[in-house]
Amino acid sequence: MAPALSTDTPGPFHTTGDPSATAVLDDGIRTAVRIDHVHKSYGRPGAERPVLEDITLDVRPGEFVCLLGASGCGKSTLLNLVAGLDRPSAGTIEVPGGRPALMFQEHALFPWLTAGRNIELALRLRGVPRAERREEAERLLELVRLGGSYGKRVHELSGGMRQRVALARALAQDSRVLLMDEPFAALDAITRDVLHHELTRIWSQTRLSVLFVTHNVREAVRLGERVVLLSSRPGRVVREWEVGIPQPRRIEDAAVADLSVEITEELRGEIRRHGRN
Ligand SMILES: Nc1ncnc2c1ncn2[C@@H]1O[C@H](COP(=O)(O)OP(=O)(O)OP(=O)(O)O)[C@@H](O)[C@H]1O
Ligand SMILES: [Mg+2]
Q1: C-alpha dihedral over 211, 60, 253, 251, to 10 degrees?
Q2: 123, 129, 79: which is closest to 100 by C-alpha?
Q3: Cα(184) to centroid of ligand 2, in Å?
Q4: Which residues pair with 242 in a beta bridge?
Q5: Residue 17: what pLDDT?
Q6: Whose CA is nearest to atom 7 of ligand 1?
Q7: Could you give the CA distance from residue 98 to residue 117 in angstroms, rounded to a whole number?
Q8: pTM, 2 dp
Q9: Distance CA 263, CA 56 (A)
Q10: Where are the domains of the chain?
Q11: Which residues are CB-contacts of 4 (< 8 A; sequence separation ≥ 6)?
């Protein structure tokens, strides 16, 4: 069962039922995701190992935030907490617009269903009437530039095409927040570049709030309006950058390269401070 389609996870997020709802912070700024002093530890009581420590981070409505950090620093843990798949040990997480959609590195499509049927399943779970599902699935496939692939089975699709279907299925949940956990990490550089372009286009069309996890600095700067760097063991927010480079960007743009060098230096420092990785 793909976690992205789970309907019964209790989840720590606060849901108002109003899909356009956002919380209003003390200073009047509205927020789509609010992570407030979150801690997460694993292990037996008395022998807990802290993975995340005092994470406070807001994602504004329509904002694209990239969460960057070394392998094992707790990025997926944090994303799973926001998705409601697990609970923080302390602190709170609010997603006022309701359950976020989640997309993983592995496509998690059902191999016995066609591309179109995979999307329709998400539509069904959302309560879209049967008569409307086919047309909506076709529209979503068009949106990810896979028009005409409705009847294709998963094994007939390339890695990039599978991730497009996975994106369409995430969009089918009609969430206001999209959580992405290294969704393009397994793709070759050219395919990844194309999907960066598509994701930026879809984000600017839909104005979704996106929280995108990656350990690839260039990818973070290529995509994000804001890049948030996590430290390792335990994960803490070390620093964040407002990117400020106009979209559409290209991964080879000089401005993207320059900021990537600066962030990489900081990331290297983090990895040195914490030994291995
Ligand atoms: N369910 C769990 N039980 C115990 N430890 C866990 C659990 N989930 C994650 N961890 C530990 O928490 C730490 C952070 O893991 P996490 O998967 O969040 O890292 P990550 O930043 O996503 O790494 P990567 O870039 O490799 O995907 C790791 O040391 C991992 O072993
Ligand atoms: Mg991870």
Answers
A1: 10
A2: 79
A3: 12
A4: 226
A5: 36
A6: 42
A7: 24
A8: 0.89
A9: 20
A10: 102-174
A11: 101, 102, 103, 104, 108, 122, 169, 170, 173
Q: What is the pLDDT of residues 113-124, one digit of tens each?
A: 999 999 999 999
- Provide the residues around ligand 2 (an ion) whose CB is within 5 A: 76
Residues of the chain under the 50 pLDDT cut: 1-21, 25-26, 277
Q: Give me 251's structure tokens.
A: 């991964």
Give the C-alpha separation, 274 to 262, whole Å. 19
Question: Which residues form the pocket of ligand 1, taking CB atoms under 6 Å from any ligand atom?
Answer: 42, 51, 69, 71-77, 215
Structure tokens that stand for 249 in this block: 């960007």
